[in-house]
Each structure stands twice: as C-alpha cells, then as structure tokens.
C-alpha cells in the first residue's frame, strides 16, 4: 500500500512537472517564430501597386511556411488583397497588417508601414475677379489648385510673389494690396506648377462716399439696418467696381466689460445686440464715410403664467399634440419614453385641470411621437423597442378621446422602429429606422398601405424627423441637414421660387432643395414665411449630447441651437443667416406661429422668441426673447431638472411636454 | 517526500475549495435600456448581483439597442454591438472590469452577435439587418486593436449568431431568411461553405437559389455554436422548432432534435456534455444531453422571452438572459446544470439580450 501511495504521488508529481515543462517549452518554441515581410515598408504613389510577400521564419531565420495573410487598417486609403497585392489610393501614412500561425497554432502579426506620397501639384489657376485694382485697396487672391491625380489641394501650399512690391504686394494672409498705379505680375508657384496673373493698379478716383441707411428710424436691438455706400469720383459719378469695406465703432450704454455689442456684414447690414450708439464706417481706398445710429432696447419681454400642470413622474414624457376634438372639446396626447409603451390622452379643455382620460398601451418601450389628423379623427403613435422587434406605427380612432381604439398596427417594412411620424392628407410620413421615411396611405385606416419611400443617396445618410406643410415635406437629416421634398405641393405652399405645383406626390416624392451644416446635429425642421417681411425661411434645430444624457439620476446639459436658413434665389441657394442659441443648453422640438418661435430648449425650458423683421446674428443676444419658463418638479422623473421636449401653441395657450415633469399649460401675460 | 505529499494535499484541497467558492462574472446587454450590466454569481451562496451598470450609446433620447456582446480572446476588453445608428450600427470597445469606453467604429445595418478568432485576432460581427429589405447581409471583420473594419463579407439574408470554431479557423453563422448555415474561412476572409438546414422536405423551397425578396424561409435559423471538441456545429431553427446537428467533416446534417417552441440561442457546455437552448416562444430553457440526444429538462424562465445563453467554463451553470415585455424589467436566470433547476434570478434592465461569460474568481 505504501509503495502504491508512493508510486501514485510520484506519478502525480511527474505529470505536474511534465505539464509545466511542456507549457514552458511550447511558449518558448512559439515565441521564436516571426513573420518576415518583404519589403518591410512601402512607399507608393497614388494608384501605384506593389506586392508583399510574407513567410513565417524560425529563430534561425529559416522559412517555415508562407501562409501569411494581409489586411489594411485604412481600406479607403490603401488596399491590400489577402495575398499581399497593395495599391495606394489616397496620400498619407497608413498601416497594413500581416498575420499567420506558428506550427504550434500561435498567432503571429506584423505591421507594414505604407507611405502614399502626395502627387505633385500640376495645375494652379487664379479665380475671382480679373487683374485690375484701384490704388489703396486690397482683395484676397483666390486660387484653384489640383494635383496630378485630380485631388483638390490646399492653396496654402502655393507661394505667392509680386514682380514689383512697390506697386502691389501679397501679405502673409494671401491679401493683395495695391499701393500705387502701375503693373505687376503675381506669380503662384508650387513645385513645378506655376501660374501668373498680370494685375494693373490704376488711380483711385474716389473722392467721396455717400452712405445711406434703410430701415426703421427707431432702431431696436435685433433690427437689421441696411447701409449702402456709394463711392463717387470728383464728378459725382458712382464707381461701381470700387470695393467698400464696412466697420463700426461702438459705444454701448453698458460698457462695463461688454464684448462686441453689434456687427456689420460685408454687404453693409448692421444689427446691434445691445442698446447704445454706433458709428458705421465705409471705406473705399483712403476715403471714408460714417453714419451714427442710436439703438434702443427691444423691450418685448413678457411674463409666463402657469395655467396648469399635470405631473408625470413615473416615466419620461416624450412628444405632444393638442387638438380640438370632434365634440368641440380640447384634447392632448403625450407619448412615453423608456417605459411600458403607453400614450396618455388628456382633456385640456380647462388647461388648469388637465386630466388623463384614457391610456393606450402597445407593445413598445418608447412611444416617441404622437400625431392627430387635422380633422381630429385619426391618431398615429410610433413604436420603438417592441418585444417582438416589429415596431412600426399604431393607428388610432380618436373620435372619442375618452375611449381611444386601436384601428390597426402597421409594421410592413417598419420593424426597425419609427421614431417620428407626421399625418398629412390621409398619409402618414413615418421615419423608418432612421434611414428613410415611408409614405403610408391611411385613407382606409384599417388597411394602411405603403405607397412610396423617400431616401437620400448620400453615404451614411439618415433621417430623424419629417414635417409636411402644404404638400412639401421638410425632413431633418443629421449630417445631411434639412431636405425639402414635394409630396404634392399646393398653391399655398411656401417656396423660394416659382415652381410647378404638384411636381411630386405621395407616390412620387421629388426633392426640391437641401441645406446641411458642419456639426451634423440637424434634428428638426420647420418652414415659415415671415409675416412682417414676406421672407421664406426653413428653421433647422439641433440635438446633441456632448455631455451625455442622464436617464435616472441627474440633470443633463445638451447642446445645439436653432438655424435660420433662407433660400434667396431658389431652392439651390440656401444661406444660413441667423441663429438662436442659448448658452449651455440644447434644443429639441419647436413651432412657429405668426412671427413668434416657440422652442422646447431641453434644460433651458420653453423659450418664446420674436422672429419678426429681417433676421441676422444670434437672436438670443439681441433681446428678441419674449419669455422663458423652465419647468421642474421635485417629484419629476428626474427631480428638479427641466428637459422640455415639445411645445404646441394652441388657442392662446402654450402647451409643453417635459421629459421629466409631464404636461404644462402656460400663457403669456402682458 | 512528506513535503511533496503536503504540497500535493494543499494543492488538491485548494483546488476543491476553489471549485466550491468560485464566483462567476458576466456581462449582459439590455437592448431597450441602452445599458450593459456587469454581473456576479457567487456559487457558494447561490446569489447573484449587479456589480456595475454601464450606459452605452451616443443618442440618449433614442434607443440605440445594445445587442451582441463578447469578451476578446485576451480578456482585456469587451465588445458591444449597438443595433441602431444613423442608420448604421456601431461596435463599441470597453475595458473589462473598469468598463471604460475605449473607442467605437461604424458597422452595417443592425450589427448583432460577434466573436473573435484565435487565428487572426479579428472580430467577426454579423450585420443582422433585421429591419431592412430582404437582401444579402454582411459580416464585418474588425481589427479590435485599431477598431477598424478590415473587410465586409457579403453573406445570406439576415445573418445571425456569429461563433468561431474552437481552433479559430472558421466562423459560423446562419442566414435566417435563406435557411442556411454559412462557414467563413477566418484567414482568407471568404465564405468557404454553405448548407441548407431547412427540414428536408422543404429545403428546396428555401434554398439560396431563391431570388432576394422572394425567399420563403421554413427553418429561420437564428443561432449556431460549434462543439468544443468534435467536428459538429449546432443550429437553432427558430421557425421549424428544432435543433440541427451538422457534421462539419461531411458537411451535412447528422441529427435533428425537435425542441420547444422557437429555439433562439444555444450554447454547448465546455465539456461538450450539455446543449442549452432558449425557447423564445414558450418562455423556457431546454437542457439537452448531447450524448443521449435527449432533452433532460425544460425549465421555465423568470420572464416570457428568454434570449441569450452563456455557460460557465466548469460547465456547471448556465446563464440565460430574459427580455421581458414592454416596461417589464429583464433578467438573467442562473440554471444549475447538475441539479437541472433555476437557482437564481438577477434583475437587470429592459430587453436583456446579448450575454457573455467573462471570468471566474475564487
């Protein structure tokens, strides 16, 4: 027995020893292999190809096998086949990876640096106005620069010189300064590429400038005043091609550490943010003219009265719609976010006593959007997070809001989730999985039918929301900005140009125009024609959470603002002319009624903004804010934290849904 | 010799003690909560708890849907697919334990399950395209160090269930709407084989020969898992209520098991003894003995919709994520594979789905 125990122990120890030794030996063995790639680095031109070969070698440098595979870490800039055929696609420094197995099945990797050189610049062209300047003026030198592969290159790579600096010279910022009459040649050079432009400097004939203004004599902050400078020669003739620069001197009423209180654009438009006295200067060469303007406070602020509040504290509240029911009473519907798939129906006939009169529960976690048809008979709610992952929309009979009935559930092609929807003339425009919007005929609400889809064709395109007015759908598309689409435009449709009514239809949506901006935060869109000026705008709103969003426990600080886009000269000519930006806060949904903008500005609450007259600059800083209300409640979903989601001005009241505190009814007081 | 004996006794005693006192650590994703939960289950006390909850995504007011989750082969990072983007989904990378966000990269439409290959060190993520047109989907192959997509492999319609062979040489997934099991050569980054897993009498009707958009999937497979030691893979046929065993040498179906309603996920235990399958259609988990080919237990889950399966390395416990419906919280059911009963329920966020075993501590 003793011998048996001894043998057993010995065997166990031997096994342990063998295991340890084998493991160590195996590791040492595999660590001696490496991938040898030839060449070890690559330098390529764009479109040039090269062949990599890889072998697995042992410690002695002997080739073991050549089953080495390759891939690129920058496929759009340098490609490589599995077997090692490389092609440079774009200039820059990149990496390829090689991988293989050791005989012991351990993974080996190697990195191959690749330098794809920039092609030489081959073409430089002067753009902009022809080479004639008046003495004592300046203008930027503009260039078009391309390389041997047709890539646009930075004009900063080009050196600019003048043949006679005493006549004209180029400064470090690419500005050409004309000093005295004469002729010079400006040379633009990069490598072997050269372009020349002869510039003639002529006598500056301007002796006077007539500076006039157009606009209200009684100027308030936020009012845009148009200054026009007419440079004239000694005979009083206007010199049309004389460049004029505008600037201003400011004397704000409150000058204690005030930043720039006004601005003047290059076309002479002026707007003041603060009351004070301002002098606008116009310069043409060495000749100046000035005009002083007094600006008063806009003084339009009003108080907000809380008429009613219905706390929803157990779930986040999402979108809101208010309508007059077929019985003449007033009703509202609100969605819920991250909850149990509920939509709440409210009687808001007496806004001081808003009560839930019915609840519709569907298989969803979020009912983000709620909409009611214009005749108050049909409702649509959107679904996200359905347990069977078939989201889509739910169509409701809301003729009796006390007993709302589900007419149909429609998820055909919409299973990815519908975040937003809009009802317009018996059709639902449903945002489909953030990719496109589907247009669904609900003339027979029990049998909805998709009649078409609208989807952009840009790389990585997306859509967040859509709003339809007079047959034009305005969608908000993150990076792709706002997009206007004719889905059956009517004669009443706002348009920046004369267009053929009914170019598109629900079955055949036709894109009219679009505007995008660098942040890619476009979340909502709303068209509006100014009642005071007749100007047509599309307002684009942002949504962004650079500081995160806190669903449970603490307030959130979103970001983003409202962009005012003017299509002067047609759908193909969008221009962002103004913004409304509250600092340290972020926008969500908004509404325009008359010349007043109502913004649910998330953590900054409801903002009511005067958008009458021409718009320019940041309206927030111009005293255009009429009122604000920051809704919070100590028993809110997140206590004491405003997160205003959607406003709806209705019959003299402003209804607001707040993510944390439910439904509010507000009124502006005099 | 006494010293050696003492060391061996201590070693064995310590080993036995560790087995009883081990704690199992997992991650589970809650798809409608946009959160991932780090869980621990103490085998000695039989109690589980949440060690951390991690908010994920970029658009908090929209549901981005964390769906697939896995831990890298080195164990330093966990990877998460977010189903909804603008409109493409994302792959996120976090540190294990610290749960710090590292980086992310954009993938295809509704990226779902994933696994890393020992051979290539690459991550293979199927883009389920659950909400798109019936068109061929893709498998995104990602370098997890650089978090860069290095290849997109076109595959069947609605691919799902990305799992690697034990040696890391092959990736397996299923094509839900063409009733196929598909094998990818992990090194060549190419599809190497396809096999219909539909019931024989209907296989022709659901073959890949059907034009896109006209498929009539009979089996609708949703998951696949290779056997750890044998040349077999197991496929969950969600629609035809069966589990299919495929012989990878002969590349043919070798056995079919009739299961509970709508088997969705499955996993083979590391000792190769058990197959655990979630029956999404009946709120239960099936435990199969692979040697006998019999279902030895069908255990009712704590909620109605069981989703994912993860099994501890010691093959003792199975962890089932359970979705819940509507506002109902999700959960993770812990099943003792020896006792064949549910021993713990850990409450997590809504629509618990992707689940992965992380590590064992003692």
TrEMBL record, chain A:
Annotated signal peptide: 1-26
Domain BIG2: 31-112, 120-200
Sequence segments annotated as region (Disordered): 490-509
Keywords: Signal
InterPro entries in UniProt: Big_2, Invasin/intimin_cell_adhesion, LVIVD
Stretches assigned to coiled coil: none
Keyword Signal in record: yes
SUPFAM superfamilies in alphabetical order: 3-carboxy-cis,cis-mucoante lactonizing enzyme (SSF75011), Invasin/intimin cell-adhesion fragments (SSF49373)
Superkingdom to which the source organism belongs: Bacteria
Protein name: LVIVD repeat-containing protein
Organism: Fodinibius roseus
From TrEMBL, chain B:
Signal peptide: 1-20
Chain spans, region Disordered: 201-224
UniProt KW Transcription regulation keyword: no
Coiled-coil ranges from the UniProt annotation: none
Keyword Magnesium: no
InterPro entries the record matches: Host-pathogen_enzymatic-act, N2O_reductase_N, WD40/YVTN_repeat-like_dom_sf
Molecular function, one GO term: DNA binding
Keywords: DNA-binding, Signal
PANTHER family: DIHYDRO-HEME D1 DEHYDROGENASE, PROTEIN NIRF
Protein name, per record: DNA-binding beta-propeller fold protein YncE
Source lineage: Bacteria, Pseudomonadati, Balneolota, Balneolia, Balneolales
